Amino acid sequence: MNGLCYWEIPSRNVARSAAFYAKLFRWKMTPSGKDYMMFEAKSGLGGGIQKTQQAPGQGVMVYVEVKDIPATLARVVRLGGKVLKTKTEIGNDWGFWAAFKDPGGCSSICLWSRH
């Protein structure tokens, strides 16, 4: 009952961020009012992209599970994002992670993979 059910990505440019994530993760985007975009993933939580005027500060880290971190980071760069942390082992057989910034100004979104 108290599990995570939704998450939001802050962005200075909602349309640009929505296009970026739709291409990167194949999320389905649906406009919802002024300066807001809702998204659905094939698996996992859906969420929204919300307009913000300033760069968001460090807060809760959100991780998106992917099959291939290096290939996903290459797509991040190709789509206009910036790699903040390359593939890094977590340790204790917990898998790997990486982080990037989207072109709409989100502070950081992380990637996770078992391999």
Structure, described:
This is VOC family protein. Residues 3-113 form the VOC domain. InterPro entries: Anthracycline_SecMetBiosynth, Glyas_Bleomycin-R_OHBP_Dase, Glyoxalase_6, VOC_core. Pfam families: Glyoxalase_6. The N and C termini lie far apart (31 Å). The protein is 19% helix and 36% strand. It is an alpha/beta fold and 115 residues long. The strands form 2 sheets. The chain has a 4-stranded mixed sheet, with helices on one face. The chain has a single domain (7-113), classed as Roll (2,3-Dihydroxybiphenyl 1,2-Dioxygenase, domain 1), CATH 3.10.180.10. A hairpin with a 7-residue loop joins β7 and β8 (109-113). It has helices at residues 14-25, 69-78, and strands at residues 7-11, 28-31, 36-40, 47-51, 63-65, 82-89, 96-101, 109-113. The chain has 2 helices and 8 strands, in the order βαββββαβββ.
List the helices and strands and how they pair.
Layout: E1 7-11, H1 14-25, E2 28-31, E3 36-40, E4 47-51, E5 63-65, H2 69-78, E6 82-89, E7 96-101, E8 109-113
Parallel strand pairs: 1-4, 5-8
Antiparallel strand pairs: 2-3, 3-4, 6-7, 7-8
Strand order of the largest sheet: 1-4-3-2
Number of helices: 2
- Give the CATH level 1 class: Alpha Beta
- Quick one: biggest sheet? 4 strands, mixed
CATH topology: 2,3-Dihydroxybiphenyl 1,2-Dioxygenase, domain 1
State the oligomer: single chain
Q: So, the CATH homologous superfamily? A: 2,3-Dihydroxybiphenyl 1,2-Dioxygenase, domain 1
- Outline the low-pLDDT stretches: none
Overall shape: it is globular
* Total count of strands: 8
**Termini Cα gap:** 31 Å
What is the N-to-C succession of helices and strands?
Answer: EHEEEEHEEE
Mean pLDDT over the residues: 88
Helix-and-strand structural type: alpha/beta
**What Rg, in angstroms, do the CA atoms define?**
14 Å
Number of domains: 1
Give the amount of beta strand, in percent: 35-45%
Question: Which bin fits the share of residues in helices?
Answer: 10-25%
Question: What is the annotated CATH architecture?
Answer: Roll
